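worker-3 :: picked SGNH hydrolase-type esterase domain-containing protein
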Amino acid sequence: MKRIVTFVIGILFVTLSATAGGVRVLFIGDSITDGNWGNSCGTAKPSSERTLWDMNHIYGSGYMYLCATYYQGNYPEKEYEFFNRGISGNTLEDMEKRWETDAIDIKPDILSILIGTNDIHFYLQGNQKQPFDFEVWKKRYCSLLNRSLQANPNLKIVLCAPFVANTGSMRKSPNFAKRDSLVRCCAKIVERISRDYKAVYLPYNTMFDEILRTIPTSKDTYWIWDGIHPTPAGHQHMADLWIKHVKL
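worker-3 :: tokens ->
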């Protein structure tokens, strides 16, 4: 988007073209990123059906919102632009189907991805006749990064580890140990991918491990209320880690 600025010097008109807006930061993933952005009413509405003009709900309510408010509130002169494209219930395959519209077309300078917990969730809900195919999962993940880097070779990438916790209703799950093991395998793959692509890696899994181990609370739901979704307190720690390591 361009804005035209015209200066009058005597009788000579000088027109300058300036780029509007600053660094473009895109957060994409599942419900943890979604946070009901664009008035989705808790549904998995595609981005095209969400409210893109209502600035009161444009970011949702989660770590992405906290990151955006930190930078936009403290550095207005930078004119940072933030975009939330998390969609509740998404797996990596779901995200792949919307990658052109929700990632490439936004033309981000910084791309932050958090995905994986739903891939394991839906796998565990299936018949599980075959082991979860981590190799296919990794190839799909890398394919999305390659597409984005082809569109913008200078793209800065931030990869976030998926996580799960034995808190709240998750305590009733008979297969938590298997879920935890599989999600941690996904996190290790994301960590390896981050090294291969020289991306910033955010170990949210180990961050929550440490919080749950060292900060006791009267309720086990204080940080992650259902084993998957962080509370506002948990989202604050996620935002703090993002801001600390990404450094716009």
